[in-house]
Write a structure and sequence with these properties.
Blueprint: E1 2-9, H1 10-25, H2 34-42, E2 50-59, E3 66-67, E4 70-71, H3 76-89, E5 94-98
Parallel strand pairs: 1-2, 2-5
Antiparallel strand pairs: 3-4
């Protein structure tokens, strides 16, 4: 078996692929569901000849500062983003790189 590394620019995938699939094809993919994301990543390998060595997921933490008196750390989108990062980095063969 050939070992394969996958490099993922998460924001590009999330916005370009998942949101476009919904807008253009009507296919909603819950990208906060880690199992869906792993299935998506695995679709790029030939499991008969390749196995995942590591999936490198490059992403940024959601903005958690204060602008105009709004504390973005108190926003539900911030909490979902942080939960996603915690869940995905706990998976086998996944390495999260924050930028």
């Amino acid at each position: 078996m050939k070992k394969v590394a996958i490099f993922v620019d998460w924001e590009n995938i999330r916005k370009s692929v998942f949101q476009t699939a919904y807008k253009d094809l009507g296919k909603k993919v819950d990208y906060n569901n880690i199992d869906n994301v792993i299935t998506f990543f695995n679709a790029f390998i030939d499991s008969s000849t390749e196995e995942i060595y590591r999936i490198y997921v490059y992403l940024a933490e959601p903005y958690g500062g204060i602008i105009g008196g709004i504390d973005y750390k108190q926003n539900s989108v911030y909490a979902l983003g942080m939960q996603f990062i915690q869940r995905i980095q706990g998976r086998d063969h996944i390495a999260v790189r924050k930028g």
